[in-house]
Design a protein that fits this description.
heterodimer, A: mainly alpha, B: mainly alpha
Chain lengths: 198, 71
């Protein structure tokens, strides 16, 4: 049991390390997009907000990288996902609220984490997104009719549940394959033992 | 179903009463979800969505699993 936990721990550390690399790439892409749109006067975000956001991503990413050099604590995946969602919410809030072009960035966090960690993480991402998006809607009200916003939130929940379900199925199939591999290895060892006994 | 088949049938671990209540609660939560999405003018109500979505899903899942004699 301890060996299994250690393997899972190592896998989580590897996943979080790859998330750090992906975070650099996505942050650079989003920064390029924001700077371009700012120069075109297409988004209302100020330069201080852009540099604050970039600095926050860089500092957090370096912090996570230094933590991951030793190990990956169990809570780290929830922390990294939570801060990712908070930073995206700040970006969405400062670039037009519910009309922001960066709204789709939420789906990157949702799908990548759900596939990596399964249904539990999908529910966590959907819940944090739900709360963060409500805060955005309260700070930047889109008008009296909120039906479109409700549909957007429910669509996000739909994607989260489906991604979580697919991840769950994939995890189950992986476990079945692992048990087959173990059985094959055990049978091979038994056959080898019988041959040497003869 | 004859008497012997009824006796041999495995005993259900979740009672009909529990499933009925869960189904009703799930249906109410689904109704609330649709109602809030359709009529609300205050975004704060959307904070109930995680509870309502998960509740409605649990209700639906329990009903389907009961109907398929999973319990």
């Amino acid at each position: 049991m301890r060996a299994v936990e250690q393997i899972e721990h190592g896998v989580e550390q590897q996943i979080e390390r790859s998330k750090v690399v992906v975070r650099w790439i996505i942050a650079a892409t989003l920064l390029a997009g924001v700077v371009y749109l700012k120069r075109q006067d297409a988004v209302p975000i100020g330069w201080p907000s852009i540099w604050l956001l970039t600095g926050a991503v860089a500092v957090l990413n370096l912090l996570y990288w230094s933590l991951l050099r030793r190990s990956a604590p169990n809570w780290l995946k929830y922390l990294t996902t939570g801060t990712d969602l908070a930073l995206i919410s700040f970006l969405v809030g400062t670039t037009g609220g519910s009309a922001s072009v960066f709204y789709v960035a939420y789906f990157v966090v949702l799908v990548s984490n759900s596939i990596r960690y399964g249904m539990g993480m999908a529910l966590y991402v959907a819940t944090v997104y739900n709360v963060a998006y409500v805060i955005i809607l309260v700070v930047h009200p889109p008008g009296n009719d909120l039906t479109v916003e409700a549909v957007k939130i429910l669509a996000f929940w739909g994607v989260a549940l489906y991604a979580g379900y697919l991840a769950m199925r994939f995890q189950r199939q992986t476990r079945v394959l692992e048990s087959y591999e173990e059985t094959i290895a055990r049978l091979r060892a038994e056959i080898a033992a019988l041959r040497t006994a003869r | 179903m004859n008497a012997q088949a009824r006796r041999e049938r495995p005993r259900r671990v979740v009672t009909r009463r529990t499933v009925s209540w869960t189904t009703v609660a799930g249906a109410v939560m689904l109704g609330l979800l649709v109602g809030i999405a359709w009529r609300t003018t205050n975004a704060i109500w959307f904070l109930l969505f995680p509870l309502l979505v998960v509740g409605a899903l649990i209700g639906a899942a329990m009903t389907v699993l009961w109907a398929l004699r999973h319990f």
